[in-house]
Design the sequence.
């Protein structure tokens, strides 16, 4: 079993973990409905077997990999990360996964590869949110990273959380976790990973390019037109004792700052 | 007074959801982000109450039952009360009573400004809904209270801005609102009237 060989986190530092109950019942996962409670209700029976991921584009070893062959060579690690949603709330979640960089090295990106494009599952029979005729998202959901962001040791592919496999509502069976970016970058239920030369168009960029940029780095100084980003509510938050804390640049992961040297973070939001 | 029990029932039915939600929010029964959930429920509740208020006249025209008109003003006041609570939850629990932030939000976030305008309209209507103002304003009272239609349009617009990824729910409310406005156009209102020429509305409100 992969869990016995997993490398567990020793501590969460000075962060208090968000209870599993909250992290698995308060989700934005529009494939399973527009409200926060919808995914937990609608993804209960989400069938994830068999699951395979196509890896293609600018790689030496493209192919369709079953979830097992994809995860097999990697040792699972527990990573306790802050998750900051663009809606100004945040959680602290112990993920179980492996660095995306290890997987990318296995498939050998070519010299042309500049970006990584991720695609989530499109299957209206299994994902009720995709059946709506009034969805603004042009399915499938697409996200992207610059290759150096994807190769950064903090970027992981997660298969579990809180020491168990991912619940459907949290992006089973395989999701991205990029802790210094707003949550919507961490695409769930991935079925395709494509290495590209051009910057991929992401789903939210297509819906509202003024509101959502390609980078989406957590940044208290750059407001979203709808949500102020200077502070966040760390969940669970009480009604009379709102757990308001200041938001930090790159969600407090200062080690990624070097990726953006010379980049105007106001323009490249 | 006639319709006393009916009025009382409407009062209780409109009061209960707000009390229940506030109770749940305090007791962590609204999930990990109670302020946000309470905000959304009160907002939606206010819009529903406004739509119900605006269906009273068409229902009266269709059925000629005076009970609809007897609760119209009360329902309008409830719509205002929910909208006011919605704004208070936003100001107290989400902004932490930070006036500077409120001003910034009003300047930079048009949907908050639109919501504030709608609340202002409802406030004016609520304040002038009493008999004293009705007498004092005479004919102008009716004209003034037609601005409830403007409030409805503003609220639906306010809600549009909050839509993130799926328009379905918004479209349902927008279509209901549109229907209720259309029913007031001369052509449609004659369709809902059973009598060819109605005796005029029973109350001037």
Sequence:
């Amino acid at each position: 079993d992969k869990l016995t060989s997993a490398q567990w986190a020793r501590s969460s530092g000075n962060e208090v973990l968000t209870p599993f109950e909250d992290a698995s019942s308060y989700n934005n996962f529009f494939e399973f409905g527009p409200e926060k409670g919808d995914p937990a209700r609608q993804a209960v029976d989400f069938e994830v077997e068999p699951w395979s991921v196509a890896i293609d584009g600018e790689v030496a070893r493209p192919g369709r990999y079953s979830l097992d062959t994809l995860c097999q060579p990697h040792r699972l690690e527990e990573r306790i990360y802050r998750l900051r949603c663009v809606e100004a709330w945040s959680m602290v979640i112990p993920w179980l996964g492996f660095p995306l960089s290890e997987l990318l090295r296995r498939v050998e990106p070519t010299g042309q590869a500049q970006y990584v494009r991720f695609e989530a599952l499109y299957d209206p029979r299994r994902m009720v949110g995709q059946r709506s005729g009034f969805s603004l998202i042009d399915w499938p959901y697409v996200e992207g990273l610059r290759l150096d962001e994807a190769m950064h040791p903090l970027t992981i592919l997660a298969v579990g959380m809180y020491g168990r496999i991912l619940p459907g509502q949290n992006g089973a069976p395989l999701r991205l976790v990029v802790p210094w970016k707003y949550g919507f970058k961490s695409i769930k239920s991935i079925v395709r990973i494509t290495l590209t030369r051009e910057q991929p168009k992401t789903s939210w960029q297509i819906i509202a390019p003024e509101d959502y940029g390609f980078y989406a780095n957590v940044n208290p100084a750059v407001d979203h037109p709808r949500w102020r980003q200077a502070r966040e509510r760390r969940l669970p938050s009480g009604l009379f004792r709102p757990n308001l804390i200041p938001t930090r640049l790159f969600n407090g992961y200062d080690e990624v700052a070097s990726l953006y040297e010379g980049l105007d973070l106001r323009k490249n939001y | 007074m006639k319709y006393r029990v009916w009025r009382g029932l409407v009062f209780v039915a409109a009061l209960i959801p707000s009390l229940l939600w506030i109770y749940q929010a305090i007791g962590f029964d609204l999930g990990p982000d109670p302020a946000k959930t309470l905000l959304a429920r009160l907002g939606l509740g206010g819009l529903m109450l406004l739509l119900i208020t605006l269906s009273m006249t068409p229902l009266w025209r269709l059925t000629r039952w005076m009970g609809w008109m007897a609760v119209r003003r009360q329902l309008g006041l409830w719509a205002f009360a929910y909208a006011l609570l919605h704004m208070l939850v936003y100001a107290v629990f989400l902004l932490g009573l930070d006036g500077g932030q409120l001003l910034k939000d009003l300047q930079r976030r048009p949907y908050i400004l639109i919501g504030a305008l709608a609340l202002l309209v409802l406030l004016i209507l609520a304040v002038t809904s009493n008999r004293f103002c009705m007498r004092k304003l005479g004919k102008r009272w009716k004209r003034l209270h037609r601005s409830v239609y403007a409030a409805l349009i503003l609220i639906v617009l306010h809600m549009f801005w909050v839509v993130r990824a799926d328009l379905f729910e918004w479209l349902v409310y927008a279509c209901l609102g549109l229907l209720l406005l259309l029913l007031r156009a001369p052509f449609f209102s004659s369709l809902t009237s059973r009598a060819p020429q109605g005796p005029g509305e029973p109350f001037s409100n």
